[in-house]
Amino acid sequence: MAAAPVAAQTVVVSEEPEAVSLTVYRGEKYGGQAIDPNWPTGYALVTETRTLTIPVGESVIRFEGVAEGMFPESAIVTGLPKGVKEKNRDARLLSPLGLVDAYLKRQVIITRTERATGKTREFPAMITSAPGGAVILQTSDGYEALHCTGLPERMAFAQIPEKLSAKPTLSVITQSDKPVTAKVTLTYMAAGFDWEANYIAQVQNRGSDGKGKVDLFAWLTLANGGNQSFTNANTMAIAGKPNRENNGPQVKPTGGSLELKCWPNQRTHEVPYSLGYFPAPPPPPPAPAAYMDEESDSIVVTAQRMRGEYLASYSPVAVVVAEQENLGDLKLYRIPEPVTVNAKGQKQVAMLVKPGAAFTHHYSASVENYGAQSEPMTLMLRGKNTTDKGLGLPMPQGQVMVFENSEYGPLLTGETTLKDRAVGEDVEIAVGTSVDVRMKVTPQSEKADNQRWEIKVTNARNTPVNIEVEIPYELRGKSKAVTKISGVPTWKTTVAGNDSATLSYDIKLERD
Questions:
Q1: 110, 121, 67, 57: which is closest to 91 by C-alpha?
Q2: Per residue in 432-464, pLDDT tens?
Q3: Start-to-end C-alpha separation, the chain
Q4: Is the peptide bond prior to 161 cis by the omega test (within 30 degrees of 0)?
Q5: Contact indicator for 308, 405 with CB cutoff of 8 Å
Q6: Which domain holds residue 462?
């Protein structure tokens, strides 16, 4: 008795989701560095809703347009009649590099133009290898490297290989006893995302006593390093560090551009070549403005001298502000309306608007970083993250730009980074060094059990300044001028305008 034939699988293609949610987690940033725009180091939880028409029997469901950095082992599909029998991540993308890789040991057609006559000639060739920076062809004349003859040429393929996908795709195999239309939810983790806070601190006034007000504004900056956009996504960002195990390196899709190099006789300074059958990549976008009206049809830039009264504030006007909520010990920032996070792009939404926050100004230094040569001290802004001081909310890490008013309007005076700050903590912002307020540290004497040093601070400004100098050593004796701040002995005093101040201190020595 003959065996019954195996029924062929029906392929069902879902080109894009009808609804999507995006929750972005921060990546590791060392030394306060900003987001890497090429491949952000964070990750995201993506939830997609798609409506599928599933036939009777066994079928292959292709979820096209998933995130490029998808972790396939994390994918969960719900809503199918009988669940998922098998799933596969299709990571080979249709691209110049993907085509060459798929056509190894296969025939292609080379079209070459003679410079002298302008005539074109077509001939077959086989791709024998494609190491980094070269495509090796075998022709009737022997072996040669593509685009290394000095003549204009292009390479054509007979057809698109079946195993190449135009978009990153997750395929699952499922079964159904009858035709059904199902609303399916696909949830997965994906690399290539990140977020950070970008603060704008505008100093409104600085009193002679060091007290002042700062208008503090922050953008929630989301980064998408993949080639897939997320349109009208319900978007959230998570602050904190959830425990996450490293399951090995993430495999990125094989698609990409093809950069050809001719060595040793290349004479075009290693200029990457874009194959003629694909358009050249677009130029990099211009730097984004702090705020742009998406409805505007044009942008007009003018330059003129603007007095302070005409440019009272550099802080943008917030139209939509992310709402902060608690998620266990983590902080969740929810954007209250859907937003589009474009491929290879960034999205900014206001997350903090705190005008008139109370800050003090002082000049800071540590004796460890100074010697007998006079060096500038660092101007610091310090506030208290409490409601009565104009703040009182969690402040995620991020970049800070400080502006001060001038006759020409607010001007940039410093740029630094801010670490995560919880409610109740001090918020310190390093504005920059000042050539007017300088310090030097010189040795005075040494005994068997101690050394004597002298700190001298000079103030060339016409107004008094407050200073704080850390002395991170065990000191001998006590001084009313030295107090402990965060456990570190610190000299706090006020230096009058066009004056100086000195402090002598003794360090305990431990002899062997």
A1: 67
A2: 998 999 999 999 988 877 889 999 999 999 999
A3: 96
A4: no
A5: yes
A6: 447-508
CA distance 291 to 268: 41
Angle at 491 (CA atoms; ends 490, 495), nearest 5 degrees: 145
Please state the domain count of the chain. 3
CB atoms within 10 A of CB 88: 13
* 423 and 324 together in one domain: yes
Q: In whole angstroms, what separates CA 463 from the centre of its chain?
A: 41
Residue listed under structure tokens 């499922």: 174
Q: Does one domain contain both 383 and 458? A: no
* Residue 93 backbone phi and psi in degrees, to 5: -100, 150
Question: H-helix or E-strand containing 114?
Answer: none
Look at residue 455 and tell me if it is in a domain. Answer: yes
Distance of CA 207 to the CA centre of its chain: 37
Distance CA 97, CA 101 (A): 6
Residue 219 belongs to some domain of the structure:
no
DSSP string computed for 48-62: EEEEEEEPSEEEEEE
Same domain, 429 and 480: no
Could you give the C-alpha distances from 320 to 139, 161, 273, 316, 336, in angstroms and in order? Answer: 61, 46, 43, 11, 7
pLDDT value for 144: 81
Q: What are 99-126's pLDDT values in tens digits?
A: 777 667 778 888 888 877 888 888 888 8
Q: Which of these three, 383, 402, 434, is where a domain ends? A: 434
DSSP secondary structure letter of residue 359:
E
Which uninterrupted H or E stretch holds 98? Answer: helix 96-102
Q: What residues contact residue 90 under an 8 Å CB cut-off, 6+ apart?
A: 62, 163, 165, 168, 169, 170, 171
